[in-house]
Design a protein that fits this description.
The chain is mainly α and 136 residues long. The chain is 79% helix and 0% strand. The chain starts with 5 loop residues before the first helix and ends with a helix.
Length: 136
């Protein structure tokens, strides 16, 4: 029986939810991300309010991601923070990096937009395994 620490999953999900919000906030990459997508960041911020439904869906996405990663770690026997870092890097290279590269190649997504998204995914795929590994 594979055991998953649900408190670790919840903590990791909340952490990456907050970090994702910060990543795409005006404090970090909001302005270049909007400009690269052909939008005016100032106009987008004027009266902007994130719909509660989207925030809830994002939190659920983070919970699912954290649970899947925690379960994979348990199944594979990933332990320790260094093992967690290696596991997170492996996941990042194998999934978001490859998928985003395909978007750049085949869907004409600007590489800088993909790089911003790839950075967000790198943070998520490092933070979740580290929190899970330290909690267990």
């Amino acid at each position: 029986m594979v055991r998953v620490n649900y408190w670790a999953v919840l903590a990791a999900a909340v952490a990456v939810f907050v970090l994702g919000w910060l990543w795409y906030s005006p404090l970090l990459f909001f302005k270049p991300w909007m400009r690269l997508r052909g939008m005016d960041p100032v106009a987008a911020m004027a009266g902007a309010k994130m719909p509660a439904g989207k925030l809830l869906i994002e939190l659920v996405r983070c919970l699912v991601l954290a649970y899947v990663i925690a379960r994979l770690m348990a199944l594979l026997g990933v332990t320790g923070w260094m093992g967690a870092v290696h596991f997170g890097l492996f996941l990042w290279i194998g999934f978001p990096l490859i998928l985003l590269t395909g978007s750049v190649l085949w869907e004409n997504v600007p590489w800088k937009v993909a790089a911003i998204h790839a950075g967000d995914w790198l943070v998520k795929l490092l933070v979740i395994p580290i929190i899970v590994s330290l909690w267990t």
